[in-house]
Amino acid sequence: MLLIDLARTSAAVAADRARTAKIGHLAELLGRVGPDEAEIAIAYLSGELRQRQIGVGWRRLRDLPEPRQVATATLAQVDALLERIGSRSGPGSQAARRDLLNELFAAVTRQEQAFLKRLLTGELRQGAQGGVMVEAIAKAADVPAAEVRRALTLRGWLPAVGATALGGGVSALRAFHLEVGRPVAPMLAQSAPSVTAALEKIGGPAAIEWKLDGVRVQTHRRGDQVTVFTRALDDITSQVPEVVEAVAALPDTDLVLDGEVIALRPDGRPEPFQVTSGRVAGKIGVDALRKTVPLSVFFFDALRVGGADLLDLPDEERHAALEAAVPAEMVTPRLVTADADAGEEFFADALRRGHEGVVVKSPCTSYAAGRRGAGWVKVKPRHALDLVVLAAEWGGGRRQGRLSNLHLGALDPETGGFVMLGKTFKGLTDELLSWQTEQFLRLAEGPADDWVVMVKPELVVEIAFDGVQRSSRYPGGMALRFARVLRYRPDKRPDEADTVETVRALLP
DNA sequence: TTCCGACAGTGGGGTCGCAAT
DNA sequence: ATTGCGACCCCACTATCGGAA
Prior knowledge:
- The active site is at residue 211.
- By secondary structure, the chain is α+β, with helices and mostly antiparallel strands.
- The chain has 17 helices and 18 strands.
- The strands form four sheets. Strands 11, 12, 13, 14, 15 and 18 form a six-stranded antiparallel β-sheet that branches.
- β3 (215-222) and β4 (225-229) form a beta hairpin.
- It is globular, with a radius of gyration of 25 Å.
């Protein structure tokens, strides 16, 4: 199959808004692709590469050669070239990558270049990714979508699952099973503003667990072999020896556990996320790192214990298996209750101990891997401040032509000026985007720019955020975590905005 | 007919490793 | 030694479609 076939299908998918139409286009193409190229076609049309990543981003895609007039590149050829690009390393590798990229882009037409560019930057923007592709695979292979989803859960890599479905149908899909050493798509949580609201959502008694502000780890053990995966299913075994040792010390030798790894201070309180994140990301000198920043692991779920798969069991049975397999100090603290007051107190206690919040879990849901089901509901405290808009950036994609990303500042009472604390684009409705674009252009000052518009600091906006963290990027040495817009405050003048002192007091 | 679950899109701050400068 | 880039850790929120109720 030719790359141009994919580029055309992608364009057709983007042109139709209805998901059924998108699925139709994708399924039609999947019906034509041969078994050798099915995996590539599924990967590219759901915005992925067969190699997952090849060290090429937006910066290396500037200054590309002129396109060809005639499309002749096959999927196999493109994939082979991307493989070569991805395998380069060491001195001179960037020049080699550039040459190979030039070779690739010189061999394809303008339409294919545009498709490849979006694919390589991870911005396919055709309104269809993995979720829609699952339906398209089901349609093309004439199998129930639930069978594809189940296999995806267990295999974790849609191109492989899709190729299997197209080649062997339901019976081939059923051959996928939980395999120790191969990661499963992790279960995700919805969110609610309070424990009471979360309990209502679940309806009835629930298990409430501390939400630790660390890194999710899925840990597999077979015999002496322990493997640790992140939420995105990357292997980080060598970076977290503490987890490997803790699981290797358990009596059970056939295990899959779900949990969180976190750096704790000597007094047991959690380090800021930055500390845990840096430690987990570190690959060089891990033995030295673990002496200064030791990691602790807390498990909250068991997918396999004693060689038995537990995915389809209800939460309370999985948790009972977890408690039997793991010592209590390695199990995330948990309270089972239907009482909202007791739940709120458990939440408050978790916060007093410095943790991020809680996750409220329905005792009867199975492990819905890879889906953000209503079985898990996270609850975190929410801070809010009134800040001043200092500038705004032009949006992209569906926000093109509107000022979208806000630069936020707190009042500095010493000078009467404002100190930038970060940016946000979240929480804005289409209506608000239009309104603020008009306002910012009216308040614009300084030279016009196609990236950012500086505005007179006159608009006050109420910003919600999860916390304040230390920053080397911003002048105040602080930045907001997960900032989002709640509403504009036309009733407030900029000199009534919250001050840098107020923000500093929120630093941990 | 209305409601709501699931998806995609739109980007945020921070950190590391690596290659180039 | 410093800088820029890519990858990945954490992530919130809105708009939309289409099946569920």
